[in-house]
Design a protein that fits this description.
single chain, about 240 residues, Glutaredoxin
Length: about 240
């Protein structure tokens, strides 16, 4: 599995499916004047909900503004927020500064501060991840990022994980170099949770901490299973593009 195909706890797969739903669920827009590369309609304060057969919400979308472009059929979203409901689990909430949806809904892009979170439940720990850009393909359930990627698998009870956070990751040189990367922390504290089992199976995790580094082409370059100091991590980061 490469970073072009990774997903966490089904979140990215669900997010990809939402792009298709979003296109189908849009309300009829009010037309506006058209011009070259100008939207043919704009919808403010967009809200849409899709229900299942029992009348329960499955997906929800809210955006400050939607702009639809007639030349390629794509749409742009300002400040989109997506809610993805799961059976017997709290909903995922995904926020971004900007969104883009292809004509057929088969490709979606989120950019700016992309944040996804799910509250804790009786059987699963709260989950949260952040990135600056995601490109999604609903039909193939894939997501892509255009930068190198660092995945940090950790647990609250892991002493070396806490040392990485307190010593290595806060080093000014590491902070500066890591800005080239899409970074994602994956919480494996609850060892018997669905999310932990998913991560361990799909990423081959045998323990924490585990740091996995991918280049911008999606190739796994390096894997670390122990504490590293700032000098060692900086050397690794500088060698990945």
């Amino acid at each position: 599995m490469t970073c072009r195909q990774w997903a966490l706890g089904g979140a990215l797969a669900a997010l990809g499916a939402t792009a298709w739903w979003y296109w189908q669920a849009l309300p009829p827009p009010a037309p506006v004047a058209t011009a070259e590369r100008q939207p043919d309609y704009v919808a403010d304060d967009l809200q849409a909900v899709t229900m299942d057969a029992a009348g329960r919400p499955v997906r929800q979308l809210r955006a400050v503004r939607l702009r639809h472009y007639p030349d390629d059929g794509s749409s742009e979203l300002d400040e989109p927020v997506l809610w993805l409901h799961e059976a017997e689990q709290p909903a995922w909430r995904i926020r971004a500064d900007r969104g883009w949806i292809a004509r057929a809904g088969d490709e979606a892009r989120l950019s700016g501060a992309v944040r996804a979170e799910r509250a804790a439940s009786a059987t699963a720990r709260a989950l949260r991840f952040e990135t600056s850009a995601l490109r999604l393909w609903p039909e193939t359930r894939q997501a892509e990022t255009d930068r190198p990627v660092m995945l940090d698998f950790y647990a609250d009870w892991c002493v070396p994980c806490k040392e990485l956070d307190a010593i290595t990751f806060v080093d000014p040189a590491v902070v500066a170099e890591s800005r080239r990367f899409r970074t994602l922390k994956v919480d494996l504290t609850v060892t018997d949770s669905e999310e932990t089992r998913f991560a361990m199976k799909n990423f081959g995790i045998v323990g924490v901490p585990t740091l996995i580094f991918y280049d911008s082409e999606g190739n796994e370059i390096r894997r670390i299973n122990s504490f590293v100091n700032a000098k060692e991590l900086l050397e690794i980061l500088k060698g990945i593009y």
